[in-house]
Amino acid sequence: MLRRSTGSVRAVLKAVQLARSFASAETADCVVIGAGVVGLAVARRLALGGRDVLVLESAPTFGTGTSSRNSEVVHAGIYYPPDSLKAAFCVRGRELLYQYCSERGIPHKQIGKLIVATGPLEVPKLSNLMSHGARNGVDGLRMMDGPEAMRMEPELQCLKALFSPVSGIVDSHSLMLSLVGEAESHRATFSYNTTVVGGHLEGNSMHLHVCETKNLDEHGNAQFPLQPELVLVPKVVVNSAGLSAPLLAKRFRGLNGQVIPPAYFARGHYFALVNTKNPTFQHLIYPIPEDGGLGVHVTLDLNGQVKFGPDVEWINGVDDVSSFLNRFDYSVSACRAERFYPAIRKYYPNLKDGSLEPGYSGIRPKLSAPRQPTSDFVVQGEEIHGIPGLVNLFGIESPGLTSSMAIAEHIVAKFLT
């Protein structure tokens, strides 16, 4: 469980290892729950500010959930309603992310994106997207006729396209590794295989209930252990648990359940393009957004490998333990390609049969149900729930990777200074 300890948290982690039949209570300064890219960015920012930070992660290492199962796209900020947190954090986060990666040599590339209309009914939607992007402060957006876009991408077919030059791609693992390193170099401590299973409000403090993941895992899908192995009493708690953040908040006794939004889960699958000799695309290619996502799009990794996805598959019946321990089904059936071919051929008509190979999948933490308007990020502090020092992050789906450093900046500035 213990990876590294400093200062006062050494005793905390020792208590986790020693406590078995009863829960000891230990104090802490700042606890970040979840070591995805957002949790890591928050931990780094807190540590740089001189706080004593402890990151608790149920998995054996950082970034095993949504942070490592996405398109690795640096979004511009086009899709999101003006004045939304998604719009503000995406635009600011993109600036911070490009700067951070450039200064530290983290692999990334600003390759640009074409959002394409393949039918006449989609053209007005492109205009709406351009208006959204402009109001959100996205620079360089340009509408193109089909022939111009197809000169940029000879394999593309479209009537019209919106070009975003500031969109790009990033090596998310290298980014997270750097965030971990900087946090640790400023005395942050990471405790993996450590699950926060709930908490209770005592006085004005949220007391966290902590167990070793292996002991929780032994319970299967039954009830969580009645007795935590450790009770942590931090001054600051940042619930950045990703997929399980709303479910965890529901297990904070004393927190008003009415402020916790409902949780929904949408699986997205990716397929890799194979059996092609030459690079097919040089830019990101996106269709008009669909219900629950941005459509099956073209993205590239930093080696030029083309992949398509994600689609949207809503999933139900997720129990607490499966959510806490990331026990989702991430398999990709080859049969699912049958749905990808017609979607992709709308803008890439030369796609040959047998060219798609199963890649990977990821789960989006949604706050809105199917066919409902997409929800904004929720960053919830004392002014909403009345508990000092508690910050809940709900629904941090796309553009969470792009927004991560802006979310961290916002949390520290608004809640923790």
Distance between the termini: 31 Å
Task: Name the shape in a single word.
Answer: globular
Poorly predicted ranges: 1-11, 14-22
Rounded radius of gyration (Å): 22 Å
What portion of the residues fall into strands of 2 or more residues? 25-35%
Count of DSSP E strands?
21
Question: What percentage of residues falls in helices of 4 or more residues?
Answer: 25-40%
* Assembly type: single chain
Structural class per helix/strand content? alpha/beta
Helices, by number, come to: 12
Biggest sheet: strands, sense, closure? 9 strands, mixed
Average pLDDT figure:
91
Would you spell out the secondary-structure blueprint of this structure?
Layout: H1 9-18, E1 24-33, H2 37-48, E2 53-56, E3 73-74, H3 85-104, E4 108-109, E5 113-117, H4 123-135, E6 142-145, H5 146-152, E7 160-164, E8 168-170, H6 172-185, E9 189-191, E10 194-202, E11 205-212, H7 213-217, E12 230-239, H8 245-250, E13 252-253, E14 264-273, E15 284-286, E16 297-300, E17 306-309, E18 313-315, H9 320-324, H10 337-345, E19 356-366, E20 378-380, H11 382-385, E21 390-394, H12 400-415
Parallel strand pairs: 1-2, 1-12, 2-9, 5-15, 10-13, 12-21
Antiparallel strand pairs: 3-8, 4-8, 5-7, 6-7, 10-11, 11-12, 14-17, 14-18, 14-19, 16-17, 20-21
Helix pairs in contact: 2-6, 2-12, 3-12
